[in-house]
Write the C-alpha cells for this entry.
Amino acid sequence: MNKAMDAGGARSSAVSVRGLHVRRGTTTVFDGLDVEIPRGQVTGLLGPSGCGKTTLMRSIVGVQKVASGTVTVLGDPAGSPSLRHRVAYDTQDASVYGDLTIEQNLRYFARLIGAPASDVGRVIEQVGLGPQARQTVDSLSGGQEYRVSLGVAMLGTPEVLVLDEPTVGLDPVLRAELWAIFRALAAGGTTMIVSSHVMDEAVRCDRLLLMRAGRIISDTTPEGLLSSTGTDDPDAAFLALVERDEAAHPKLRREGDRS
C-alpha cells in the first residue's frame, strides 16, 4: 500500500529520520530513532501523551535541538531555508490574533510569509469559514478558532503540513469536519502528519506510527493494526501492542513517558 515501501522508497518519502537522538534535560526522548514518512498520505502519530509525538514533529519542522542523527524533509535537512515555504506546522494552541477578524489574520500572515493575496479567500473557503470571515477570532468557538490557525498553516500551499493534536477537546462533529479537510488536502497531494492520543482517529489515516516511550512500536496501516491484533477496536489494538512491547522489552515496562 505504501509508496515508501517500494524499491524507490527513499525517493518517495516526504520525511526520512535516521539515528535520531534527542535529549531534554536529563531525559532521553529518542535514542536512535529511524522512520520514513511517505508523500501524499495522511500519516498518524498516535500514542499516549508524553510518548514523543511533539518532539518528533518539532524535529521534522526543524525547531527541535537534536543531539545526533539526521532528519531529511523533501530531500533537504529539516529546518533548511529552502523548506520555509514548503513545510508548515500548526501547534496545539491556535496561533492567531483574537482582536483581528479571520480575514485580517490571514491577510497579515499571507504578507508575512509572502503567500499570494488570492490565498486568503481560497483558504477561508477550504476551512469552511466563509460566513464568519469578518468576525473577530475572539467571537468564534474553539473549533472555529482552530480552523483559522489551520488556515494560516495552509497559506502558500505547503507540501508538508504538520498538525499537533488538531482535534483535542473538540466534539465528534467538529472532529469529523476537520478530518474531512485533512483528507481533501491529502487528496490534493499534501503530505499530512497528524498527531493524536485518540486511538479511534487511527482509522482515518493512511499510515500509522504508534509510539510509546520514545519508540515506534508499530509502523502499519489501520487495516494492519486491527488484523495483527485480532480486534476491531483501535484502543484494544493499541493496548495489545503495548503488552507485546512490554513482553519484548521488560526493562521498559515501568518506564515513564518521555516527552
Q: What stands out?
A: The longest strand covers residues 13-24. Residues 213 and 256 are 7 Å apart (CA to CA). The longest helix spans residues 172-187. The radius of gyration is 18 Å.
